[in-house]
Specification:
five-stranded parallel beta sheet, four-stranded mixed beta sheet, 10 helices, 34% helix, 24% strand
Length: 306
């Protein structure tokens, strides 16, 4: 390992303060569930990158966060939460704006959730917010797709330094193709490959993306697990069967588990298995950051899958 390496994971992306409302069913217009009494409510810290880094830190990895928070009480809340989880916050940017927040409705019967969010434009990360020297001080760089130009910049700097770049790809914009090309390990939410390739079948979608990208390609499939294309080899691993309490953090924790297993030198199949296990543990707990598993928790679930 180079003497300049300080961090196992450098994360570039979003954070959020979540107002979580648990409901007895999923609301639907023009149905008996159009009006529902709230079962319980809580304020929880989360966001794609904040949760992923918290999970990495819980697994023992040294993590640092590059992202913007507001200068309000919610901004203070998220900074304190990440610091308390062991995430280095010395490169966090504080802007004169309210912090990003989300209203999350969780179905008590299934654990599935609906997320409604808002983010002030002043929280946007730009290319100039990504320090080149800092990127080179990590073993892996992880980016989400909230501020895509900043993510592309971080990924480009990292790959120029010979570092792997993992990603959280959850939406499709006119810059998605450029972001996919910039990262070395794209990890897609299930709906994204179908949207960018026109192929509903995950394998056909991955093989179409393969024509433009030589790295490992991964799709998370929710309760069905995950699939990965390694070279020409398709690898599928089912998710553990658990009783879901809250699925809010599952995708973020999956990526943390994937990163941990990749840095450990696991095979692609073992990466998927460990990432699925970590995500499954998170689904049995409420909240985003509050649901992240320890290394022992994730390892125990992974062992049960063997």
């Amino acid at each position: 390992m180079s003497s300049c390496v300080r961090w196992d994971v450098l994360g570039v992306g979003a954070n959020s303060v979540d107002y979580v409302y648990r409901l007895p069913a999923s609301p639907r217009a023009d149905s008996p569930t159009a009006k529902l009494r709230i079962t319980s409510h809580a304020v929880s810290c989360g966001g794609q990158m904040a949760t992923a880094l918290s999970a990495c830190a819980a697994m023992g990895l040294r993590t640092t966060y590059v992202g913007a928070t507001g200068n309000d009480d919610n901004g203070r809340r998220i900074r304190e939460a990440l610091h308390g989880r062991g995430v280095d916050m010395s490169h966090c940017i504080v802007r004169e704006a309210p912090n990003q927040f989300a209203v999350i409705a969780v179905d008590d019967t299934t654990g599935e959730r609906i997320v409604l969010w808002d983010r002030d434009d002043r929280l946007r990360l730009g290319e100039s917010d990504i320090p080149a020297g800092l990127v080179a001080s990590a073993r892996v760089v992880h980016v989400d797709d909230v501020d895509q130009e900043a993510a592309i910049r971080a990924a480009t700097l990292a790959r120029a330094a010979g570092l792997p770049v993992t990603s959280d790809l959850d939406r499709v914009t006119d810059r998605t193709a450029a972001l996919v090309a910039a990262v070395s390990v794209p990890i897609f939410a299930e709906h994204v490959p179908a949207a960018i390739t026109g192929e509903a079948d995950p394998e056909r979608a991955l093989r179409k993306i393969r024509k433009q990208h030589a790295g490992m390609l991964c799709i998370t499939l929710g309760p069905r697990g995950a699939v990965l294309l390694d070279g020409d080899t398709l690898i599928y691993e089912p998710a553990p069967a658990v009783t879901a309490i809250d699925t809010t953090a599952a995708g973020d924790v999956f990526r943390a588990g994937f990163i941990y297993a990749m840095l450990r030198g696991d095979s692609p199949r073992e990466m998927l298995r460990f990432a699925n296990a970590a995500a499954a543990v998170s689904c049995t707990r409420a909240g985003a950051i509050d649901s992240v598993p320890s290394l022992d928790d994730a390892a125990a679930m992974a062992q049960a899958l063997r």
